[in-house]
# Entry
Amino acid sequence: RRFQPNMAPMTFSTHLVPMTRGIMATIYAKANGAISEAQLRDLYKETYANSPFVRIRPEGVYPATKEVYGSNYCDIGVTYDERTGRITVVSVIDNLVKGAAGQAIQNLNVMMGYDEKAGLNFVPVYP
# Structure
């Protein structure tokens, strides 16, 4: 369920918006065959089931950067347009935590055999 060299081309878009921190990325891809939005979401849930800082949003809900502000989370929303066969994936992170220091701590925890969530499992700042 990870990137494979033989996958169809994807379009990746980042967004510049007036906020102090955070990264929102939108990825578009064409489905290789028939799939439902529920099946697609289930694939994402299965792929990230053992990733404590990845949250898959419910059907019809795109993530927002304010929901990950000050946290080590990556929130992902997935939709599928049956008419066009287009998959749309939106992901958000706080680039100063998940994108920098939090990622370093998480990687160190894994490398040293510590609990992956050590030092990172806290209530994020909101709003």
